[in-house]
Design goal:
The structure is a single chain. The protein is of the alpha/beta class. It has one domain: Luciferase-like domain (TIM Barrel, Alpha-Beta Barrel). Helices cover 40% and strands 15% of the residues. It has 13 helices and twelve strands. The chain has an eight-stranded parallel barrel, surrounded by five helices. A two-stranded antiparallel ribbon has the order 5-6. It has a two-stranded parallel ribbon with strand order 10-11. Helix 2 links the parallel strand 1 and strand 2. The protein is globular and about 65 Å long. GO terms for molecular function: monooxygenase activity; oxidoreductase activity, acting on paired donors, with incorporation or reduction of molecular oxygen. This is Luciferase. Keywords: Flavoprotein, FMN, Monooxygenase, Oxidoreductase.
Length: 397
Amino acid sequence: MSPTFDGASSPADIEGSPLHAAFQQPLIRGLFLPIQNGGWSISTLPRGTDWRFDYNARLTKQAEALGFDLVFGLAQWLGKNGHGGEMKYREQSLDAFIATSALAAITERILLISTVHALYGPWHPLHLAKFGATLDHISNGRWGINLVTGHVSTEWAMFGQPMIEHDERYARAAEFVGVLDTLWRSDANLTIRTPRWQLDDAFVSPRPRYRRPVLVNATGSDAGIDYAVRHSDLVFITSPAGADFDDAIGALPAHTAKIREGAARVERRVRTLINPTIVCRPTEREAYAYRDAIVAHADEGALDGFVAQGSRSDAKAWSKHKREQRILGGNLHLIGSPEQIVDKLLALKRAGCDGVQLTFFDFEPDLAYFGEAVLPLLVEAGLRRDFAGSNSPHTTT
């Protein structure tokens, strides 16, 4: 048989599923974990942000207590010294698949999204289908996969593979996820034939609790959007105009509309997430002073290395991001007082963003301040229906 992807069958459609609960929120709220040294900011300004598992476990429990809907981490393949500089930026990193999955044992409600480069090396869809079914069981339906295709030539070279052409990568990803979905939906032995995969009497158990795990894709190109609206529940987008907020807010409505229209053509509804870096202090002046201090401590060597990697990438989503915007990091920058941050999140919602995947410079205290000063205002603004997390694993208030 040929594999098929049941685009009409999503965990979001099942009342009681964690994804269904997240989709009921006016603005989905996620945390992008700093599982690599330096997090998202190429700055040597002192901070506590740490790539180690214990730190990220504390952040995840902190986010869950604050009612966040999901967490996930970055997947990357870098050599010794990472991007270089004094920091050796991102030399130390945890594997996103293993680290995020391990959080299932210490959480109860929050969705856990693992990023996997499914086209690198020896990944077989039967392996990932079994791993995913197991993680779905352990997490009570809270696990999902951010399936990415790899856009950096040096990463492909690490696996001894030539880099596959951009659009062809998405064709192969569709084939891969079609096999996954077919295995997850079946309660029988399957013989599957595709151009790259031949499975005889393949079977996966246990059956996922809500039809299948959550599917995510990060993209910005036409081919990537076409893949994402057909095969994902959440589409992780970047600003097509760079990280400046005013530039981004002007460009995002057309970008998000394109994704919604693409999903409508295939009779699906997806949600978009964007990754703002939040710099929030009691006043605008204090927030910009904090931002200026971060930028003043830029690690120029690491910044050079990070920007150079971009020349080895064919990703479409980051083409308008400027060198200096990489210091603070993130898809776009939200800087200001709590009230100003809420106004900017409202503007993102009006621009078609269904959710945010937040990053911070000094994660633990900055997330705590966000919870204390911003979250109550989000409820008042109608962007959230809850403030703190519920004791029930699948309930929002």
